């Protein structure tokens, strides 16, 4: 069922359709598709992937299925989730950065981590972290006041802001000392090691590839760096009898409600790495795309700024900002940070009428789902109004910016609070315009990134 783009835009205003990469030809060879995936996975899909319920293909010796129906997605990610696991390629790419943290853990280890971490990400717990988010955002806004009228790289600014928020909410200290090193690790890994090579796709996980050797060396340096961050936070101490003031103290005090077990030092390090990386990188990217869309759509930008001004937003009352939140939700639809979820069948199954065999691959692509012709009206248009209160909500399994099911992102509420607060403060303070007119094309490499960083100009409101 198509989700209507119900809105209250002026009738004379055509919806904005931001640029996207060209779609792949349907007759693309296996090697050609592999090359396209390495360059930009988003550009490896043809028209059928945006139109059909299921697209069956081959992944080396096994079948692959692109699933675009909510029922099939529910089956794989919820109803029979124990039969579907991460692929060796996905583990290869993510484990050097995230270790055995929540994102990659399986079975009993995952259940222990999820139960133990859950209290740290409840709305009440997140509310205690909002002052950290607000202080970092206010400082960035003040810094931008001194740069009005000059060309700005807002992508870099959003990365700095999200990293500051990650550091303060995790450790209660500014990231000035460590931020440059952390960004260096992220950039280095993304440039050299994040894209799978042919052998990464071909060999079983227990057979190391040349890239795996480089990843292992990276892992050693990265783990040492995370250990230094934790040591610095431990040295800062904790006020006796005071409630936890950051995520680190919440995680340090956390106990599995069934076993009473705490995190080991190694587990704590992997959780810190997971939360900092997954939090700051995805939020920075979402904020960049939101600012880019608002710069392309001045009417929507003015509506957001007027909402902020009307409610007198100066702090944390994000529930009073429905249009701001709708802009963010629509941004996450058009540019889902996790553009692809890949699962491998552990045993035979039946999905969407197809007989699935062991090792067959299920591809659930939020990028495709969020732009699918059968699921959305004007699927490629920027229409924040489709997420306003009172408008019919999309099917739970057609809109997956944070995944779905037992492994839905534990930090979803944290991310939405952080991004809504930051977007309101920035757009409420500045008018944002693009300086250059070259299109910015999304590329899929781990997350949905822009192919370049365009220059913006800010003017005070």
Automatic annotation (TrEMBL):
<dbReference type="GO" id="GO:0004497">
    <property type="term" value="F:monooxygenase activity"/>
</dbReference>
<keyword id="KW-0503">Monooxygenase</keyword>
<dbReference type="InterPro" id="IPR050121">
    <property type="entry name" value="Cytochrome_P450_monoxygenase"/>
</dbReference>
<keyword id="KW-0479">Metal-binding</keyword>
<protein>
    <submittedName>
        <fullName>Cytochrome P450</fullName>
    </submittedName>
</protein>
<dbReference type="GO" id="GO:0020037">
    <property type="term" value="F:heme binding"/>
</dbReference>
<feature type="compositionally biased region" description="Basic and acidic residues">
    <location>
        <begin position="1"/>
        <end position="11"/>
    </location>
</feature>
<dbReference type="InterPro" id="IPR036396">
    <property type="entry name" value="Cyt_P450_sf"/>
</dbReference>
<comment type="similarity">
    <text>Belongs to the cytochrome P450 family.</text>
</comment>
<dbReference type="GO" id="GO:0005506">
    <property type="term" value="F:iron ion binding"/>
</dbReference>
<dbReference type="Pfam" id="PF00067">
    <property type="entry name" value="p450"/>
</dbReference>
<dbReference type="InterPro" id="IPR017972">
    <property type="entry name" value="Cyt_P450_CS"/>
</dbReference>
<feature type="binding site" description="axial binding residue">
    <location>
        <position position="409"/>
    </location>
    <ligand>
        <name>heme</name>
    </ligand>
</feature>
<keyword id="KW-0408">Iron</keyword>
<keyword id="KW-0349">Heme</keyword>
<dbReference type="InterPro" id="IPR001128">
    <property type="entry name" value="Cyt_P450"/>
</dbReference>
<keyword id="KW-0560">Oxidoreductase</keyword>
<feature type="region of interest" description="Disordered">
    <location>
        <begin position="1"/>
        <end position="24"/>
    </location>
</feature>
<dbReference type="InterPro" id="IPR002401">
    <property type="entry name" value="Cyt_P450_E_grp-I"/>
</dbReference>
<dbReference type="GO" id="GO:0016705">
    <property type="term" value="F:oxidoreductase activity, acting on paired donors, with incorporation or reduction of molecular oxygen"/>
</dbReference>
């Amino acid at each position: 069922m198509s989700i209507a783009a119900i809105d209250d835009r002026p009738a004379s205003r055509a919806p904005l359709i931001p640029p996207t990469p060209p779609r792949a030809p349907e007759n693309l060879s296996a090697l050609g598709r592999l090359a396209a995936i390495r360059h930009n996975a988003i550009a490896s899909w043809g028209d059928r992937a945006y139109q059909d319920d299921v697209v069956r293909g081959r992944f080396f010796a096994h079948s692959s299925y692109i699933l675009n129906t909510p029922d099939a997605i529910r089956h794989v990610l919820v109803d029979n989730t124990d039969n579907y696991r991460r692929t060796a390629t996905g583990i290869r790419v993510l484990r050097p950065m995230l270790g055995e943290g929540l994102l990659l853990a399986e079975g009993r280890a995952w259940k222990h981590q999820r139960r133990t971490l859950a209290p740290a990400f409840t709305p009440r717990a997140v509310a205690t972290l909002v002052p950290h988010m607000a202080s970092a955002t206010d400082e960035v806004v003040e810094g931008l006041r001194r740069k009005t009228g000059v060309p700005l790289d807002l992508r870099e600014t959003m990365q700095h802001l999200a990293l500051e928020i990650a550091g303060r909410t995790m450790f209660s200290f500014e990231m000035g000392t460590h931020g440059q090193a952390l960004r260096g690790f992220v950039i280095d890994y993304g440039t050299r090691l994040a894209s799978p090579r042919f052998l990464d796709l071909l060999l079983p996980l227990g057979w190391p590839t040349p890239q795996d050797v480089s990843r292992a060396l990276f892992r050693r340096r990265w783990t040492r760096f995370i250990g230094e961050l934790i040591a610095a936070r431990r040295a800062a101490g904790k006020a006796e009898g005071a409630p936890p003031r950051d995520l680190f103290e919440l995680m340090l005090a956390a106990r599995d409600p069934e076993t009473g077990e705490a995190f080991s030092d190694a587990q704590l390090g992997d959780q810190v790495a997971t939360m900092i990386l997954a939090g700051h990188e995805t939020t920075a990217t979402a904020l960049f795309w939101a600012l880019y869309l608002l710069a392309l759509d001045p009417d929507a930008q003015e509506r957001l700024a007027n909402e902020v001004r009307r409610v007198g937003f100066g702090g944390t009352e994000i529930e009073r900002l429905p249009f701001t939140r709708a802009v963010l939700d629509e941004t996450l639809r058009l540019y889902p940070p996790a553009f692809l979820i890949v699962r491998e069948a552990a045993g035979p199954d039946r999905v969407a009428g197809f007989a699935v065999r062991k090792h067959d691959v299920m591809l659930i692509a939020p990028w495709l789902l969020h732009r699918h012709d059968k699921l959305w009206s004007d699927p490629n248009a920027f229409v924040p109004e489709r997420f306003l209160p009172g408008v019919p909500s999309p099917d739970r399994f057609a809109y997956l910016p944070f995944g779905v099911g037992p492994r839905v992102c534990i930090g979803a509420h944290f991310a939405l609070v952080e991004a809504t607060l930051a977007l309101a403060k920035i757009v409420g303070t500045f008018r944002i315009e693009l300086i250059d007119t070259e299109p910015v094309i999304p590329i899929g490499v781990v997350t949905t990134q822009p192919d370049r960083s365009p220059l913006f100009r800010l003017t005070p409101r």
